[in-house]
Amino acid sequence: MITLRRRRWSARLGFAALAVVLTAGLTACGDESEPKAADSAQSAPASAGGKASAATFPRTITHDKGTTTIQAKPKRVVALDNSLVEAVAALDVPLVGGIGSYRDQKGFPPYLGAAVKDTKDVGPLAGPNLEQIALLKPDLIISATVRHEQLYAQLSKIAPTVFVKTTGPIWKENVKLVGQALGEDDKAQAKLTAYETRAKKIGAAVNAKAGNPTVSIVRFVDGPTRIYLGKTFGGIILSDMGLARPENQRDAEKFNIEISEEQIEQADADHIFVTSFSGGAERKAKFLANPLWQRLKAVQGGHVHEVQDETWMTSVSLQGADMVLDDMARIFAVDPAK
C-alpha cells in the first residue's frame, strides 16, 4: 500500500516537473514574439484610424502603398516633400533630412526657423539622394506616391516608410497621417482644430465687414494662367473661412481653370488674390496690361491683392495656412483671431 502511494506521488511529481519545463519553454519562445504583460501598454499596435493612444508603439500604419509597422516613436525622420517637411516640423519631431526646395526655390523656408536648422537637404525633389538618406540612419521616411512611387521599395529597405497619396487637396488628411506615424495623433488633431477654428472666425469677420464678398485666386506661372478652385490648398482655406466664390469657380472637386488673355473675365470677383511663380512674371505683365483686366470689378474697386506664392501655393501646410489667414486678416483689417 505504501509502495503504491509512493508510485502515485512520484508520478504526480513527474507530471508537475514536466509542466514546469513546458511552461518555461513556452515562456522563452514568447519572449521573442509576444509582448510582456508589463510592456503591453506600450506595444499594442495602432491602425491609421488613430484610435489608440498617441504614445502606443509598435503601431501599424495603413497608407497609400500598404501597411507599415513602426516599432518605436520616431526620433530621426526624413520627409521627401516640402509639405511633409512642414507637417513634421509642425508636430515638433526631429527632422534629420528633408527636401528643402521646390522646383527653382532653394533651401528650407525661412519661416520654419529652428525646426530645420539641423536638417540635411537630401534633394532635389525629383531625385532624392538615397545614399545620403541611408547615412542619416532614419527611423521613419515619409513621402508621397505622386512624388516618389518608383522609390518606395528602395526607401523601405532603408527605414520604415509611409506614403501619402498626393500633397495638395488632402493636405489636412496628410497632417493626420503624419501625426499617426509620429505618435503625435492628438497634437495633429489639436493643431488642425485650432486652424479651422481660426479660419471660421476670420472668415466670419471678413463677411461681416465686406458684405459677403466673392474671392478669386489667380496664379501666373511659366504656362497657362490658372484660377485656383476648391480642390487646392488656397481653395480649401477659403472654404474653411466660409468665403464665397464667383459662380464659375464653385466646383469643389476641380483643381483649376486655365485661362488665356481672352478669358480674363473668368477671374473676376469682388476681391482677387494674385501670386506669381517662376517664369510667370512676363505673363503677369501681359495680363495686367490687357484692357480686359482693367475692366474687372476687383481692379476697378482697388481690390486686387498681391500675396506670396511660397505660402499661398507651395507650402501646403499648417504653417502656410496660418500665414494665409494672417494675410486675410491684414487685407480686410479684421481681428487675426490669434
Short structural description:
With 338 residues, this protein is an alpha/beta fold.
Could you characterize the architecture of this molecule?
- The chain is of the alpha/beta class.
- It has 14 helices and twelve strands.
- A five-stranded parallel β-sheet has the order 5-4-3-6-7, with helices on both faces.
- Strand 8 and strand 9 form a beta hairpin.
- Helix 3 crosses helix 7, helix 8 packs across helix 9 and helix 8 runs parallel beside helix 14.
- The N terminus is likely disordered.
Summary keywords:
globular; disordered N terminus; five-stranded mixed sheet; 14 helices; alpha/beta; Rossmann fold; single chain; five-stranded parallel sheet; 2 domains; about 350 residues
Describe the secondary structure blueprint for this structure:
Elements: H1 2-33, H2 40-43, E1 59-63, E2 66-70, E3 77-79, H3 82-90, E4 95-98, E5 120-121, H4 130-135, E6 140-144, H5 145-148, H6 152-158, E7 161-164, H7 171-182, H8 185-210, E8 215-220, E9 225-228, H9 233-241, E10 256-259, E11 271-276, H10 281-289, H11 291-294, H12 297-300, E12 304-306, H13 309-314, H14 318-331
Parallel strand pairs: 3-4, 3-6, 4-5, 6-7, 8-11, 11-12
Antiparallel strand pairs: 1-2, 8-9, 9-10
The total beta strand count reads 12
Whole-angstrom Rg: 28 Å
Distance between the termini: 91 Å
Q: Briefly note the CATH topology name of the largest domain.
A: Rossmann fold
Mean pLDDT: 86
Looking at the overall shape, the CATH architecture of the largest domain is 3-Layer(aba) Sandwich
